[in-house]
Amino acid sequence: MNQVPFSIENFSLFRGDPLFRLMRALRLGHPLKGLGVRSALALCALTWLPLLALSLAQGLAFGNGVQIPFLFDFAASVRFLLALPLMIMVERLVDIRISGVLKHLVQSGLVADDALSTLQSIAGTAQRLCNSVLGEVAGLALVVFGVIYLRIEISGSLTSWQFLPDSPGSSRTLAGWWYILVSIPVFQFLFYRWIWRYLIWTWMLWRISRLDLRLIPTHPDRAAGLSIIGLAQLGFAILAVALSSVISAAYAQDFLLGTTTIGEAEVTVVGYVILMLAIFLTPPCFFTGVLFRVQLIGLRDYGALANRYTLDFHRKWIEGKAPAGEPLVGSADIQSLADLANSYAVIRTILYAPLDPGTVLLPIVACIVLPLLPATLTAVPIHQIAHEIITRLL
Fold first, then answer.
1. What is the pLDDT of residue 385?
2. Model confidence, pTM
């Protein structure tokens, strides 16, 4: 069977790996769209529904039998009903944006002709890494290691649905075994799968930043034509909604149970936010040096052009050397001078990374921070926050 040659047009981070092939065989994945709603629902059913059924069977889904019944374990429900499907359904969005980046680099002429073959090689290598069994095996190995050696429980010293009430911390319930042998491994595998692909994307941006790029300093996106990279990065940042939601749910539960105070959690949460910002903002910064050089060259070249033009303008209209009968009002010279000034202003405000503050940077921060707010409101009621703000202001 002849293999279809690789093309940037059909590049995908997800359509082709072993998990996708398995889901497609089970009729849960689309050959062109990848995994989607059906795959997300199937994995939710696999990870959460058995926990509910087994907890109900043993009387641990609700009530006072344990301190943390299953339906009151916010972290578990958010992990399997929100974070897990979000990790599945955001794949298509990320795929569309990354393929759009590669097509834009080729079709817009940003990559020089003699560097197109290198770009093709970068994309081909990334595609092989995404589809390789190596990444899946590494993820499975980490999952197995976690199941065997890292059996850390979220509930700590409190009794929960994961253990029998008469022997907390020693004898697992049926739901507890399903949780540690099926539900958590599935979630961890998807998480490691995303880490692998994000590392590949990061490597791609690093290699692309070193290509011969035809960057125009006067491009209106203020990133010399590279703003599409920031928009692709925003697709990855949506994953932060999933991660932040799980952390928020876990802390909200701890705050309600009184096992943690907001003061104790503050350092960890701030560290998490800083780490997430570093992870999601660093790859686009590979282009910082390139954009800085583009700005310097643009200021030099357009500064020289502006000097010649304004000198001729001054001689013509200020020193009175304009041709006889040529009126100043309506002259194209005025509009050209304004256009030149606008071009120079664009160069002066070039971003040093393709991260537009309004359309990319602020949404990334929001994806990381906003899901953490419910936990904060659980620890500190909103009326108390409002009272404190009013007191400080007045």
1. 57
2. 0.86
Of the candidates 297, 302, 305, 129, the residue with the CA atom closest to the CA atom of residue 203: 129
User: Could you tell me the CA-to-CA distances from 49 to 4, 52, 74, 80, 191 in Å, in that order?
Assistant: 41, 5, 15, 10, 20
**For residue 67, pLDDT beyond 70:** yes
Domain definitions of the chain by residue range: 8-293+354-393
Query: What DSSP assignment string belongs to 88-111?
Result: HHHHHHHHHHHHHHHHHHHHTS-B
For residues 181, 241, 93, 3, the Cα torsion angle rounded to the nearest 10 degrees is -30
CA 7, 11, 16, 20 torsion: positive or negative?
A: negative
Which DSSP letter does residue 160 get? B
Q: What Cα–Cα distance (Å) separates residue 181 from each residue in 75, 294, 348?
A: 17, 53, 57
* Alpha carbon distance 4, 16 (integer Å): 13
pLDDT at residue 26, rounded to an integer: 72
Q: Using alpha carbons only, what angle is made at residue 269 by residues 84 and 94, rounded to the nearest 5 degrees? A: 35
Neighbours of 5 (CB within 10 A): 7
* Spatial separation of the C-alpha atoms in residues 115 and 5, rounded to whole Å: 19
pLDDT of residue 80 exceeding 60, the answer is yes
Query: What's the pLDDT score for residue 281?
Result: 93
CA-to-CA dists, residue 369 to 73, 242, 318, 322, 366, angstroms = 22, 11, 56, 61, 5
CB-based burial of residue 170 (10 Å sphere; 0-12 exposed, 13-18 middle, 19+ buried)?
exposed
Per-residue pLDDT band at 241 (split at 50, 70, 90): very high
DSSP state letters, 8-69: GGG--SSTTSHHHHHHHHTT-EETTTEE-HHHHHHHHHHHTHHHHHHHHHTT-SSSSSSSB-
Contact 172, 78 (CB under 8 A): no
The mean-pLDDT minimum among 55-59, 111-115, 323-327 falls in: 323-327
What's the chain's Rg over C-alpha atoms?
Answer: 28
Cα separation, 291 vs 296, in Å, equals: 9
Provide the CA 379 distance to its chain's centre, in angstroms.
Answer: 28
